[in-house]
Amino acid sequence: MRWTQALMREVAQEERAELGLGPRDPFDPYALADAHGIAVYTLDSLADYELGGDALEHWFERKSSTWSAALVPLGSARIIIENDSHAPVRRRSSIAHELGHHLLEHPFDDVILGEDHKRQFDPKQEKQANFMAGELLVPFAAVTRMAFDGWDNERVAEAFDVSEQFAQMRMYGQRIRAQRAAAR
Amino acid sequence: MLLPSTVARKFEHEYGNTSDRHVEQRGAVGEPMTVHPNVDVQSLHAALDAARAEQGLSWRQLAKELGVSASTISRMANGLKPDVTAFAAMTTWLRLPAERFYASSGAAASGDEPELVASLVPLLRARKDLTSDDVAYLEEVIGAAARRFRAERETRSE
């Protein structure tokens, strides 16, 4: 399927609406995963299912920064495994990214390991999943309004439970538009 | 409405003409409607998958044709039953009898799980950005996740 930004935005809006969210409401990626019947497992929880200490140490310490989450197909089912050594805002963004792949029905040979391994992925699909994460977490309608209302990154981050870096990424384009409108 | 002709023909051959069969959609007034307890969700999902592929529909497009949310179909892919209204919409769209998707007692949720992890290993090994340690540890992680998934699915189906 050919995904335009407008179509992806529509999907994100549909999914947020299914959760009963308006444009200014913070999004809970775990709630959306649950609505789709997708279990989210923390790495730490897998110690109870024979995940060895070496593997935990590898992803928690030695290579912690390199792997955030994975969307994994098990038959027709989907699960998400997340690296819970990361900060909650990063985890929320990672889960939203994986859900983006799911919602856009990306084939699995390209998405199995999540956003940190994008070098080997179809860059278009990674961009699409990132776009979806942005629209799910901080929707465009809210971005536009907040840009024109002069919200700074800290305020956006707090309202939507995202990092300030994520807030900047979302707000940048619309802030420029708002500044140009104000200068006229 | 688009009809998944091949699927319908296949099952009409096996079960006869099904167009005048109906699914009970309404319970007593005010009662929550639940689907048959032994609905074989995997078979229903597979039939929908075959039909939508034949029609060139995405899952989301299929959901819109059925008048259900995309999450309803995702939940089925994850082994959860649709409600009775969604179930009726699906079997009607497939032009298949609802009974076709009633599993014999106790068989609905068990199914044969494919070798869940084995199919993922080649994908991991093909990744040139991963070290051999990364691949080995990811295989461990996915293996543990598959064990948890199986354990929880068994608990849920009991």
Radius of gyration of chain B: 19 Å
Strand order of the biggest β-sheet of chain A: 1-3-2
CA radius of gyration of chain A? 17 Å
Strand percent estimate of chain B: under 5%
Can you give the mean pLDDT of chain A? 91
Instruction: Let me know the largest β-sheet of chain A.
Output: 3 strands, mixed
Judged by helices, strands and strand pairing, the structural class of chain B is mainly alpha
Distance between the termini of chain B: 38 Å
Distance between the termini of chain A: 40 Å
Q: pLDDT under 50 segments of chain A (min length 5)? A: none
Give the proportion of residues in helices of chain B.
40-55%
Helicity range of the residues of chain A? Answer: 40-55%
Q: In total, how many beta strands of chain A? A: 3
What class would the helix/strand composition of chain A place it in? mainly alpha
- Element pattern of chain B in H and E: HHHHHHH
> What's the mean pLDDT score of chain B?
74
Beta-strand proportion of chain A: 5-15%
